[in-house]
Amino acid sequence: MSAEELNKEINRRRTFAIISHPDAGKTTLTEKLLLYGGAIHLAGSVKSRKTQRHAVSDWMEIEKQRGISVTSSVLQFDYNGYRINILDTPGHQDFSEDTYRTLMAVDSAVMIIDVAKGVEAQTKKLFKVCRQRGIPIFTFVNKLDRFGKSPIDLMEEIEQVLGIRAYPMNWPIGIDGNYQGVYNRQKNQVELFSEDGTHGQNVIASEVGSVEDPVFAERIGKENHQALCEDIELLDMAGEQFDDEKVQHGELTPMFFGSAMTNFGVQNFLEEYLRLAPPPAARESSDGIIDPQDEKFSAFIFKIQANMNPAHRDRLSFMRICSGKFTRGMSVYHDRTGKMIKLAQPQQFLAQDRTIIDEAYPGDIVGLFDPGIFGMGDTLCSQGHKFHFPDFPVFPPEQFARVQAKDTMKRKQFVKGITELTQEGAVQLFQQAGAGTESYIIGTVGSLQFEVLEYRLKNEYGVDLLMQMQPYEVARWMENGKEKITPSSLRGADRGMFVYDIKERPVLLVSNEWALGWITDNNPDIKFYPVPPDKKKA
């Protein structure tokens, strides 16, 4: 393949994640982008249970029942000559780890803000991750079909709470949270939306015209027209200047107003996003910067998902391609094991619908059939150029429970299920010192993860769990040079629980920082770490 062809494929790729607080409309917007991309002809309104349709991107049974996303799903479609990879991340804070890893695999992010609620807690956390990576952030203010805050107040809030300036690409028409359409600043035109009785299941019809047109002034009403003209003048005089350089470095966010539920402003957002968002970027590695145009293949694994197809009990690892061209059946060097691996059944997705693919390019996300060889963050590269991409940071667990199978006859399925879900990164696994293997200690970032663990073990592995919450909130990995740390060599070990992690490293669980303080003071030779010593804290 010529360098020119590779370059052309790279430049038409857009890989992004959608981040937001739960319930800001993330999954709904994802659906609508697919609707405009022609990937689905009828978008399933997540809320309208009457039609019994669920969101395409929420494929796990528990997600359909709750109406929330608890895993990141991958969606790919074409629009206007672009190849788009969307990573729909879990909105719930208990799954911030999965989201964090997903954000390592994208080139830009779309941040959704609820027009009535503004910037919420989870949005702040996720925004911070994007900020650290310096990736461009596009803002979509959602739910304009409902009563909400004024656009000026929202701009101020974004600036004060997140510390990023916003440049409105369009502006809502209407007063006091009652909106009829949007004004497109680039095209200097008004777009009014027709009534849509289908809950946004179809692409919406809209009327377009100039802001100076007296017919439009009459349609939107004199008061609304006057308010719009004043707002536009204010933005042009006192607002931020558009600066593409700042957008690309994540210092200025282009801001769009719309309603995913009624498709209001969605198509305009998609087209502007594709025009402004960056193609796949170069990445840091142990061997310097890896450019996407480098013809030697490289990728990393950012997500592992067991049982995507319950009938086959399969396990898929998702890789993000960073450089070169991928072809089906190619052999690559697996950095962690030092072995060559053949990539035989590569798949691409629309949630859980998948197709086998023959080739893919930088920016693309490919699912690999995984018999258990891949780990989170593994680097794959060509034999001729060996290196590795940086490790993912780790989240310290904050909640712990002892789990065992209710039925001892199901011990084998229990161990298999716990092991696979740990490899997925859903939970962290510990073994109590001196205890048998009938039970494990599980650590999580949030309590919803326990619910999902219990649910998935029952539904995917046929195991009912006995779960006892433990009174610990702090975990510390311990190191003492070459000396082995044991429960008897640690002073005050009885004030907490002494466990080993999956790599047999000693870890101490304690109930609070005060108890930890006593133990650290009484064991001056031992170093205590909030995450494994070879990892960075997220």
From TrEMBL:
<dbReference type="Pfam" id="PF22042">
    <property type="entry name" value="EF-G_D2"/>
</dbReference>
<keyword id="KW-0963">Cytoplasm</keyword>
<dbReference type="Pfam" id="PF00009">
    <property type="entry name" value="GTP_EFTU"/>
</dbReference>
<comment type="function">
    <text>Increases the formation of ribosomal termination complexes and stimulates activities of RF-1 and RF-2. It binds guanine nucleotides and has strong preference for UGA stop codons. It may interact directly with the ribosome. The stimulation of RF-1 and RF-2 is significantly reduced by GTP and GDP, but not by GMP.</text>
</comment>
<keyword id="KW-0648">Protein biosynthesis</keyword>
<dbReference type="InterPro" id="IPR009000">
    <property type="entry name" value="Transl_B-barrel_sf"/>
</dbReference>
<dbReference type="GO" id="GO:0003924">
    <property type="term" value="F:GTPase activity"/>
</dbReference>
<feature type="binding site">
    <location>
        <begin position="20"/>
        <end position="27"/>
    </location>
    <ligand>
        <name>GTP</name>
    </ligand>
</feature>
<dbReference type="InterPro" id="IPR031157">
    <property type="entry name" value="G_TR_CS"/>
</dbReference>
<dbReference type="GO" id="GO:0006449">
    <property type="term" value="P:regulation of translational termination"/>
</dbReference>
<protein>
    <recommendedName>
        <fullName>Peptide chain release factor 3</fullName>
    </recommendedName>
</protein>
<dbReference type="InterPro" id="IPR004548">
    <property type="entry name" value="PrfC"/>
</dbReference>
<dbReference type="GO" id="GO:0016149">
    <property type="term" value="F:translation release factor activity, codon specific"/>
</dbReference>
<dbReference type="GO" id="GO:0005525">
    <property type="term" value="F:GTP binding"/>
</dbReference>
<dbReference type="InterPro" id="IPR038467">
    <property type="entry name" value="RF3_dom_3_sf"/>
</dbReference>
<dbReference type="InterPro" id="IPR000795">
    <property type="entry name" value="T_Tr_GTP-bd_dom"/>
</dbReference>
<dbReference type="InterPro" id="IPR027417">
    <property type="entry name" value="P-loop_NTPase"/>
</dbReference>
<keyword id="KW-0342">GTP-binding</keyword>
<feature type="binding site">
    <location>
        <begin position="88"/>
        <end position="92"/>
    </location>
    <ligand>
        <name>GTP</name>
    </ligand>
</feature>
<dbReference type="Pfam" id="PF16658">
    <property type="entry name" value="RF3_C"/>
</dbReference>
<dbReference type="InterPro" id="IPR005225">
    <property type="entry name" value="Small_GTP-bd"/>
</dbReference>
<dbReference type="InterPro" id="IPR041732">
    <property type="entry name" value="RF3_GTP-bd"/>
</dbReference>
<dbReference type="GO" id="GO:0005829">
    <property type="term" value="C:cytosol"/>
</dbReference>
<dbReference type="InterPro" id="IPR035647">
    <property type="entry name" value="EFG_III/V"/>
</dbReference>
<feature type="binding site">
    <location>
        <begin position="142"/>
        <end position="145"/>
    </location>
    <ligand>
        <name>GTP</name>
    </ligand>
</feature>
<feature type="domain" description="Tr-type G">
    <location>
        <begin position="11"/>
        <end position="281"/>
    </location>
</feature>
<dbReference type="GO" id="GO:0016150">
    <property type="term" value="F:translation release factor activity, codon nonspecific"/>
</dbReference>
<keyword id="KW-0547">Nucleotide-binding</keyword>
<comment type="similarity">
    <text>Belongs to the TRAFAC class translation factor GTPase superfamily. Classic translation factor GTPase family. PrfC subfamily.</text>
</comment>
<dbReference type="InterPro" id="IPR032090">
    <property type="entry name" value="RF3_C"/>
</dbReference>
<dbReference type="InterPro" id="IPR053905">
    <property type="entry name" value="EF-G-like_DII"/>
</dbReference>
